[in-house]
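Collaborator request, handled under Task 6.
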Amino acid sequence: MRPDAQTTAAKTATVFFDIDGTLGWVDPTCEEGRPRWEQGLSPAPNDAVVDAVRRLVRHGHRAFVCTGRPPGAIHPLITAMPFSGFITLAGAYVTLGSRILRNEPIDPELLRAVDDVLARRGEGARLEGLRVVTELRGGTQGDSANSAPDINEALRRQPDGRVYKVILPTAAADEIMAEPRLAESLSAHALELGNSEIGLASNTKRAGLLAIAKVLRDGMGPTYGFGDAENDLPILDEMTVAVAMGNAVDAVRERADYVTSDVAHDGVVAGLEHFGLI
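Structure tokens returned to the collaborator:
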């Protein structure tokens, strides 16, 4: 059984925050309505959430971001906040300060096997690198301009030739995961708008947490995790206290120790206040 949450607040704690649906929210169907420079970036937290995270750190606690997004797609307002490190790309790339703790891209040959299925279906995808997202054969909707015509060209457009996640139509992801030789190495998670993401099965938010814990060791203190989606479950299961946002999917709410307000009503702020962390 987890320690009583209310008794842990006096200790130095380590708190992990998902971004989308937790620190902030942008309706993906309204992306074109955002300022051009923000399009493709994560949502930006509002002033109340920014202030709460700053107060958390001023109280002597650590804060980490834990997101499926690549580093280059995190809003600069978040990167300017006093986070100790970032678990990005769902655990494929992890940093603690200036140190890189995990850097696990998908092998190019495995990517080509994934693309064999996509090409057979006549569908495209988005390939996420650390800083660049490459559209392949029109992207997930098939209408992206200037997309790469094939996987080799898509990889050449990545500055380091590395891809960490593939965003693709869910039906294609299901077909890929139905192939035993691919399902051995990969995992898939559903996203919005009929798309899914595929990455290495070994890359999870839990793997990112363990990489950080290996360095911090006993210095982590009690851990708190805030999340809303199924891909948050691997890390929430490892927390001293798992906090579900009010907008979280049922599976997250059922496993949480506490359900806070939704993202539209500053659930991060309410949760931190509830546990006496700010």
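The cover message to the collaborator said: "The longest helix spans residues 108-121. The two ends are 25 Å apart (CA to CA). Please let us know whether this matches your experimental observations."
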